[in-house]
Amino acid sequence: MDTARILIMIATYALSIIMVVLTLPLLRGGARPDRARITEPVPGAGTATYEYPVQRPSAVVHIALGILFGGGILLLVLLSLPVVDDLRAAGVIAALALLSIGYGCYSLAAFRNCSLIDAPTLIAGTDWRGRAVQIPHQEIASFSATGQRSSVVQDQRGRKLRLNMNWFSAPNLALYLLRATAEGRFPGKRPGDQRELRRGLNRVQSALNFQCAEPLREVLLQGPAANPAVFRRDPAAPTGTGWTGPEYEAWVGAVTTIFWS
Q1: In this structure, are 145 and 30 located in the same domain?
Q2: Do residues 151 and 253 share a domain?
């Protein structure tokens, strides 16, 4: 075994141990509650505290973790055997081993720490490091898909909450974003254009892995963003807000009823 291969093997084992050691503190903590108490604003009544279920990654993640760590360990064992003579092959095996163990450590921390609370007026959760973020719906400044079945929601202060839609579901957030888009809060490049509104609704579907049924889409397309002349609005209110009147209340009721039906 030549010196270069020995150095590759030592570096790979050392980095693997470092990743595991750095992950261990993220796995500590007490029992994970199934429900959490959230304080929400109540129009005209200050605030109120409600209890909501806490979503966590499915236990199926254990299978993926076993595959990742098992594959990484096998690659580490293979790297130490004399059957691999080529230096380039040893480098590839080392890289694959580090990738498997590194992603396995990340997934293990995410499984232990990630959570989501999908409340009617806010979204709250913890990331893979256990850091908590709570974003009221009214403070959402942007949202976007970051990959297949993953998205990020950002508030007006720059705080971000990343959502893995393979693990979680967020119907309350979906309803808010669909309605807010149809009200013009996220106007896109051509405010008031129905085609732009259709693209906005598609962005919500893509970000939250949510399929908007055709009856719901039809009602959303009748909203203030595409038909501002039909609804009354406070001109001093921020963009896409301040809608009032019986027409608006009837439209909101129709959207809510169809969404939950």
Answers
A1: no
A2: yes
Q: Which amino acid is at 91?
A: G
Residue 75 contacts by C-beta under 8 Å, 6 or more apart in sequence? 93, 94, 96, 97, 100
Given this model, what pLDDT does residue 258 score? 95
Q: pLDDT value at position 252? A: 95
Cα–Cα distance, 129 to 118 (Å, whole number): 20
191 in a domain, yes or no?
A: yes
Token pair, residue 42, equals: 């109540």
pLDDT of res. 190 = 65
Residue 164 contacts residue 127 (beta carbons within 8 Å): no
Coil/strand/helix, residue 80: helix
pTM: 0.84
Q: Which of 70, 97, 113 is the last residue of a domain?
A: 113
Give the 3-state secondary structure of residue 100.
helix
Domain containing residue 210: 119-260
Which single residue is written with the structure tokens 């595959």?
67
| pLDDT given at position 79 | 87
Q: Does some domain include residue 52? A: no
Give the model's pLDDT for residue 34: 84
Q: Is residue 31 part of a domain?
A: yes
The residue ranges of the chain whose pLDDT is under 50 are none
Structural domain contains residue 51: no
Cα separation, 140 vs 135, in Å, equals 7
Residue 189: its pLDDT value, please?
Answer: 65
Find out whether 91 and 120 touch, Cβ atoms under 8 Å. no
| Dihedral sign computed on CA atoms, order 180, 182, 183, 188 | positive
